[in-house]
Amino acid sequence: MMKSTQWLTHDQLAFCVLKIYPELICGKDFWTSHPIERNQLAQTGPAIIAIWDTEVTQPTIKQIRRIWARHFEECLLGEAELNAAQTKLTLLAIANQHVNDYQDLIDIEEATDSDLKRQKEWKKFRANLNRVNQQNGWPLQPEWPQQPDDHTAR
Q1: Beta bridge partner(s), residue 43
Q2: pLDDT by residue for the chain (154 residues), tens digit each?
Q3: Residue closest to 99 by CA, chosen among 69, 126, 131
Q4: How far apart are CA 49 and CA 13, in angstroms?
Q5: For the chain, first and last CA: distance in Å?
Q6: What is residue 38's DSSP assignment?
Q7: N or C: which terminus of the chain carries fewer CB neighbours within 10 A?
Q8: Global pTM?
Q9: Domain residue limits, the chain
């Protein structure tokens, strides 16, 4: 079971507001923020509703706390899904670049046996990335495939 965090982030506060008022649009009808430490950009306090620009009544802290207590696992799961998907896309972009670089060498008939081997390793890595979201631990504890070593200068 996931635990709630000490403070809500601005995204988590927006999640709670949208649970109460699903018809509102964050960034149009309301804005959330949280204080940060300047040097490290670390959150230093609870998120707040910075601007409320709608006719409906702004939710109270008590309402927000009730919504968070009821729905925090859903929010944290959504955050984990987003983070895992972003990591997967980043790794796929890296893999695609390597596969394409080696394919260029193959296409112009300048690939060595080593290049062919490396391309195959990167293709295997890419295939394993495409299966990572089928794991039991996805998205909370994904086991990322090992990225191939690639020391080829390009």
Answers
A1: 36
A2: 344 458 899 999 999 999 999 999 999 999 999 999 888 888 899 999 999 999 999 999 999 999 999 999 999 999 999 999 999 999 999 999 999 999 999 999 999 999 999 999 999 999 999 999 999 999 999 999 999 987 654 4
A3: 126
A4: 8
A5: 46
A6: T
A7: N
A8: 0.71
A9: 10-59, 81-154
Measured N-to-C along each axis, helices 10-20 and 61-107 cross at an angle, to the nearest 10 degrees, of: 120
Contacts of 46 (CB under 8 A, 6+ apart): 7, 8, 34
DSSP 148: P
Query: The tokens of 149 are what?
Result: 């070593």
Burial group, residue 13, by CB count within 10 angstroms (0-12, 13-18, 19+): buried
DSSP string covering 60-121: PHHHHHHHHHHHHHHHHHHHHHHHHHHHHHHHHHHHHHHHHHHHHHHHTT---HHHHHHHHH
For residue 152, the one-letter residue type is T
CA dist list (Å): 135 to 66, 93, 103, 129, 147: 33, 21, 30, 11, 18
